[in-house]
Amino acid sequence: MTTIAKLTKKDFQSDADPRWCPGCGDYSILAQVQTVLPELGIPRENFVFVSGIGCSSRFPYYMNTYGFHTIHGRAPAIATGLKMSRPDLSVWVVTGDGDALSIGGNHFIHMMRRNVDLKVLLFNNRIYGLTKGQYSPTSELGKKTKSTPAGSIDAPFNPLHVALGANASFVARSYDVDPKHLQGVLLRAAKHKGTAFIEIMQNCNVFNDGAWEHITDKSVKDDMQLRLEHGKPMLFAKGKKGIRLNGFTPEVVTLGENGVTEKDIFVHDEKAAPSLAMLIAELMAPHFPTPIGVFRAVDRPVHHELDQAQLAAAREKKGEGDLEKLLHSGDTWTIS
Amino acid sequence: MDTQPRPSAPGNKAVQEIPAVTIRFAGDSGDGMQLTGLEFTRATAIAGNDLQTFPDYPAEIRAPAGTLPGVSGFQIHFSSEPVFTPGDQPDVLVAMNPAALKTNLKDLVPGGTLIVNTGAFIDTNLQKAGYTSNPLTDGSLASYKTHEVDITRLTELALKDSGLNAKEIGRAKNMFALGMMLWMYGRPTEPTMRYLKEKFASKPDILAGNEKALQAGYNYGETAELFGVTYQVKRAAITPGTYRNITGNEATAWGILAATKLSGLSGFLGSYPITPASDILHELSKHKHFGFTSFQAEDEIAAMCAAVGAAFGGTLAFTTSSGPGIALKQEAIGLALMTELPVVIINVQRGGPSTGLPTKTEQADLLQAVYGRNGESPVPVIAASSPSDCFDATIEAARIAVKYMTPVFLLTDGYIANGQEPWLIPDVKRLPPIEVRFRSDPNNFFVYQRDPKSLARDWVRPGTPGLEHRIGGLEKDKLTGGVSYDPDNHDAMVRLRAEKVERIAQDIPPTKLHGGDEGDVLVVGWGGTHGAIYTAVTQLRARGKAVSSVHLRHLNPLPPDLGGILKRFKTVVVPELNLGQLQKILRSTYLVDAKSINKVQGKPFKVSELVSRIGELC
Predict the structure, then answer these.
(1) Which residues of chain A does B470 touch, with a Cβ-Cβ cutoff of 8 Å?
(2) CA separation for the pair A230, A293 (Å, rounded)
(3) What is the ipTM metric for this complex?
(4) B336 Cβ partners below 8 Å, 6+ apart?
(5) What's the CA gap between B164 and B207, in Å, rounded?
(6) What is the helix (H) or strand (E) element at residue B448, kind and residue range?
(7) Are the C-beta atoms of A233 and A60 separated by less than 8 Å?
(8) DSSP string computed for A311-334
(9) What is the CA radius of gyration of chain B?
């Protein structure tokens, strides 16, 4: 076996100049992905980036890997066919809130329930950017856009709820402008076997500027972010506050007040049932800090491995498929 | 090689030799008529007749027992002469209940033979079938040779000591009917006995019951005074070789496996259940030892998309569906043609539009296949002409897809998909390989550079170092494959994609004419109408008419010699199970005043219909 020279970020930069709007959160996400991939020890030619349609879906053009910019909403389905037929490849899906949760909702959930070994990056900016500003399936109720001048009447999806409801084996959240956190989550996702889903809160500075500011802005992030760590109590505000479960109802408590100690704080468990991860995913501004990090990471049978095992078992039982034998199987008769 | 035909039934019954016969088995969906028909077919094939069959079953969900919508039928036409259709009208009708009689009697030839299960002609069944009086006693069947047999009771008697319950005994009456019919046509029971042993290997009681019912039916035919005569249809003079029966859907599935083997690639099917195409998915799912992955996707779109993804990965990819499913796939087919990836799309056509007639046949998706996508989006289209031809047509579709790096449509239809005929099994070793070349040389690599002859771009497997590239549905630069909005480049690419599909014509062999090279009428057909057209033209020629026919496999592009052939006839006529789709294409392509013979009843053409309508033109 030949040793592969360690790749660098530069190896993953294609010769196409990224053409997102200046200031778009996508630039940072691209940079973090290009930073993480060399860490995986996978030859560059074995990466494939598959995308649908939308601003996020331009992503493959800027990666010097194999890439497929497909059609609206269908990237998970195309990537599923690719991964099933080529288990040796590392296949990544890049999508957006409209692409994954609106037009592609069906493929999105089925990819997850099957646990297809794909790394899925959903850039959530809560707006349609490429079509210049209509409300998306993650836009808040009452959102005024070009297509909803009187405000959206559609309740939004929480992408994590959709993923957890589809029994995704890896569910995480990060955001565009925290390189370190995003890199950490990307690395975890890359190493997960099965569908690894990351919601990346991303700012569209043209059509929905500041959509996540109340969570990501430096001035509020300590109070408004809950950084999940497996086996650790859910503390935030520099350890001063935490999340306590009162029955099935989470509540914010302050350590040292009313006799609250760290022992009362809910401990994060990535391996817990999806219902518990659902509960955490419900924590939302303004009443709660927004959790980021890995919500769920469990081992489940991986789709292509099950498929390959069936193919192998069939060969084991019947021998390698023989066309001539097949054509002559059952009743035949010979005319001389 | 199996059992030789047994000499016709022993005993003192007269044996009458006949050249051909068409039998229809009809009963309630729960009566097992399809199985009865298939088993009769198996015995008939082994007896050396040429044959064709056609099942006619109701919509998928079982209608209430005994009602008209619940009637299921199976027709077989067999002969000592070559057979190309399942027969226009049955000569013999086996009716297992009043509803079956009511819905099928109108098709029986005048004076035809009727075998009725009298045991089912009770008041409630008569009412369900809408009879106000019992046709067995009111004289309405007087013009037919009617044989009344209480199959229900005879089966009960035969199985009274079998230990089976009433319901299980009721289910065995189709075997009694089959036994009777096997006797009547001098067919052996052994192939069915073998089949039963296999099917009920784990249920010895049921096996014994079915065997007993079959034998009882056979013995009844032999001993009962009812049937004065048995019939013999001699062996047909058939090309020597080893044969089997095959349906169109089976042949398509095996064609997929064969094409995969011939290409040396691994194979992938993305599919979603839909009538009448699902059997292809079922069949392929049985043969995982071929290393073939069949994937039941979440919907039609995903099925096509998964196939496109597999093709991008360097796998021989297929999708199977029917009309409405194809409509959903069209956007992804457009992606495959834009990114120039080989995928075979198989449309087992059914009655449309919309949900239409799922279990009935039609040829109304030709224009959908040729034109049904946004933009200038040429896709090659070929069609299979008979059940066994689906095998060759599937391989041909895969060959075109890979050679020209393009999605290819293969059109079959419900009629040939479910119809069955004997098939001369090809010598696998003599099937020409499908040549596949993946590029691995990174020097001077441009994604959209082309083979000068076929205009195909290189196929590159992800995982090949130095050839990393990005493709997608946006317009491509004609060399680099990069996104291009350049007006002249788009103009060039639109023309190039059209030219590439046109070049497939260079591979189309000379068109075969049935009949003379010139004359009064040329009948142009395509797809599953082959048998009816061929037979009708043969009959008209026997009457001295100057009529010929061609049957097209290649519908886009059309054969390069077709224009010349059309000119040599005074009249061109196109029989189609649609309102004139190939006719429109021929008119626009060749400026020829092609006439049309249309039928949109969910049923295939009858030979007699075509004889009379083509006959009007010559």
Answers:
(1) 14, 16, 60-61, 63, 66-69
(2) 9
(3) 0.97
(4) B308, B311, B342, B343, B406, B407
(5) 11
(6) none
(7) no
(8) HHHHHHHH-S--HHHHHT-S-EEE
(9) 26
pTM above 0.80, yes or no: yes
Tens-place pLDDT, residues B111-166: 999 999 999 999 999 999 999 999 999 999 999 999 999 999 999 999 999 999 99
Q: Residues A271-321: pLDDT tens digits?
A: 999 999 999 999 999 999 999 999 999 999 999 999 999 999 999 999 999
**pLDDT tens track for B295-309:** 999 999 999 999 999
Shortest distance between the Cα of B559 and any Cα of chain A, in A, equals 31
CA-to-CA distance for B94 and B96, rounded, in angstroms?
Answer: 6
Q: Name the residue type at position A259.
A: G
Q: Which of A85, A110, A317 sits opposite B310 (nearest CB)?
A: A85
Which range, of A1-5, A250-254, B182-186, averages the lowest pLDDT? A1-5
Based on C-alpha coordinates, what's the Rg of chain A?
23
Residues B45 and B50: their CA atoms lie apart, in Å, by 7
Place of tokens 């790749």: A7
The SS3 assignment for B216 reads helix
Beta-strand relationship, B14-17 and B20-28: unpaired
CA–CA separation, B147 vs B128, rounded Å?
23
CB contact under 8 A, A84 and B295: yes
Range B19-36 average pLDDT: 93
Provide the shortest C-alpha distance from residue A9 to chain B (in Å).
Answer: 16
Say yes or no for a CB contact (<8 Å) between A66 and B483.
no
pLDDT for res B9: 44
Q: Give me the pLDDT at residue A334, please.
A: 86
Of the listed ranges A15-19, A183-187, B300-304, B449-453, the one predicted with least confidence:
A15-19
- Mutate which of B458, B468, B469, B483 to test chain A, going by most A C-beta atoms within 10 A? B468
Mean local confidence (pLDDT), B255-260: 98
Residues of B with Cβ-Cβ distance to A14 under 8 angstroms? 470
Query: Do residues B303 and B331 touch, judged by C-beta distance below 8 A?
Result: no
Q: Is B243 on the interface with A (CB under 8 A)?
A: yes
- Which tokens is B544 given? 């001295």
Within 8 A of A330 by CB-CB distance, chain B residues are 244
- B138-142, long-range: CB < 8 A, 24+ apart: B141/B105, B141/B114
Q: Residue A71 is nearest to which of B261, B335, B466, comparing CB atoms?
A: B335
CB contact under 8 A, A88 and B292: no
CB atoms within 10 A of CB B184: 24
- As a whole-number percent, the residues of chain B with pLDDT over 70 amount to 97
Q: What is the mean pLDDT of chain B?
A: 94
Bridging pattern class, strands B71-79 and B569-576: unpaired
A81–B470: do the CB atoms touch at under 8 Å? no
The token pair that represents A21 in the structure block: 């709007």
- B525, β-bridge pairs: B551
**Model pLDDT, residue A1:** 47
- What's the pLDDT tens digit per position in A36-64? 999 999 999 999 999 999 999 999 999 99
Which candidate from B238, B293, B482 shows the least CB-CB separation from A84? B293
Q: Nearest residue on chain B to A331, judged by CA atoms?
A: B244
β-strands A118-124, B92-95 pairing: unpaired
